[in-house]
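The following block was generated as part of the benchmark described in Methods. Ligand: adenosine-5'-monophosphate-propyl ester.
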Amino acid sequence: MSKGAHISSREQYDKLYRQSLDDPEAFWGDIAESFHWHKRWEKPFCRCNFDMNKGPISIEWLVGAQTNLCYNAVDRHVEAGHGDRVAFYWEGNDLNQDSKVTYRQVQDMVCKIANYLKSIGVKKGDDVTIYMPMIPELPAAMLACARIGAVHSVVFAGFSADSLAGRIMDSRPHVILTASAVKRGAKPISLKTIVDDAVTKCEEEGHKIPFVVVFDHSLAQKRSEVPFTSGQDVWWQDVIDPQPIECDVEWMDAEAPLFKLYTSGSTGKPKGVQHSQAGYMLGSATTFKYVFDHRPDDVYWCTADCGWITGHSYVTYGPMLNGATQVIFEGIPTYPDAGRAWDLVDKYKITVLYTAPTAIRSLIQKGDSFVTKYSRKSLRLLGSVGEPINPEAWKWYYEVGGDKRCPIVDTWWQTETGMHMITPLPGATTLKPGSATLPFFGVEPAVLNDQGQELEGEAEGYLVIKRPWPSCMRTLAGDHERFEKTYFEIYKGYYFTGDGCRRDKDGYYWLTGRVDDVINVSGHRIGTAEVEGALDNHPACAEAAVVPFAHDIKGQGIYAFVTLMDGYDYPPDESLRKELVAMVRKVIGPIATPDVIHWAPGLPKTRSGKIMRRILRKIASKEEDSLGDTSTLADPSVVEQLLNLRGK
Ligand code: PRX
């Protein structure tokens, strides 16, 4: 427990938590006072319906207020005299590539981008797609959109051209902001080539993209090697750098959309999770302050890319709304060797490190000497996000990474929640390794059984949330019906998280993983249906069924059963496996690479034709001894066939 912490005891947490539920208006209203409002909120403070029995789902916070997130995250600090404070220490992929950007410089950068966007006709409510590496221009581009009321849609610059095209066609941006290339590890990846492919695909479908702005990232690729289409492409340095450094902010209604971010669901194409202004601001800023117990002299490093929600809430918005100094890193923690992360900790005197269990596990594998050769004395707090942290990884992170000095905040949340939901507070919560512990202020979780009944006390079941919180997603872009169906229809009156959990006798929550058809690969969500759809694109694939299996580094891996078109022998030529894997990488991106392709002359199906995934999961986990009841299978012999083809 830490005496100087914002929340320094369990009693203080309990008291504030109670207050946050008993009187949300007083609790969040008090927090809201520390931000700038162009127009204050009115009554009611929060106008929400979380219960489909009572009508359509609607979520509105700080009704009637007007604000601007960019103003609050940047200008407010400059105006308060903190313009010279470092906002970003940027570290490139290669050693000795670094730079420093102050809050005043961020303001200049943001205004230039915003002025350019305005000059090409981007208006309040227009969409802007951002496909960029982790360079300061990426969060600056997001903030520039927020400044003028444009809705950003950041696509992780590791997604394929097909995935990017799908997201572009869904959000119909006025412009794409990209960079020539990115370097993560030894080899540069030409982002511009991927964007060109995506643009061509969009045009084939009748969607013209008026503008593509290319940041010349010469550290990753020489300008002369970058494909460039005159008439469509412009260089960032040519059009944005000369812009003026003043740009008025657009005052935004509390509920106007701020951004959409695509994430995988259990069915169909990725969903555009849409967040709004004022509530998201309160949620991301308040959790950042309390969960990381933010102090003005902190140097904070979140290893997530801005292409994920963690990068939105805990790189761009949460930290900057608090005027924090942070490190952003273009590379990967294992390049040029597994000591890189700890090298950065010493180089920048990082105090708070926030990363994912998958990264921790990949570092464990390389051995402790990569860690212990660095001092790491500056660290005071460690964070974990994205998937349940296994006890071995927790112990190593605590004992080796943090020298047994630093508490670990294991933060459970989602793209949809926008902010930490279940998490320790470092000065107040007694930790239990592997548990995300207790709900954050204003968050009221519950555990339901199969029948949707709420369980009391110690319990295991589905994790749901009983009431709205400020930064809850507001809708799925363009599809409110799917939003209601996915999250609110199954258990009326609750937000359904898609996660299973256990609550212990002390009220601590232990997340047990997804209960839907979503695989959590290295902390990233991949829908089984998406991978199956990608495999189906190959002419040899007649049918595919994808399930998760336990993976030492990634947490969960992707296991694909593939039935081939008539005429193929089992097992087929090895080259087909490579082609199928390549197809998934092309359609979705390298993160969705199947770990195993298991040839399947037949899939276990019920008589009505439904694939029995339970059986496939058992086979993938090598637990065929406990297959359970197979009597409902249309053809029980397929199981034997599958087992014979394991490893072939
Ligand atoms: O299954 C949970 C898991 O990640 C899912 C959310 O994924 P995404 O929207 O991509 O956001 C990831 C970053 C917030 C959840 O439904 N998850 C996330 N954090 C944890 C976790 N599972 C267990 N413990 C966590 N700390």
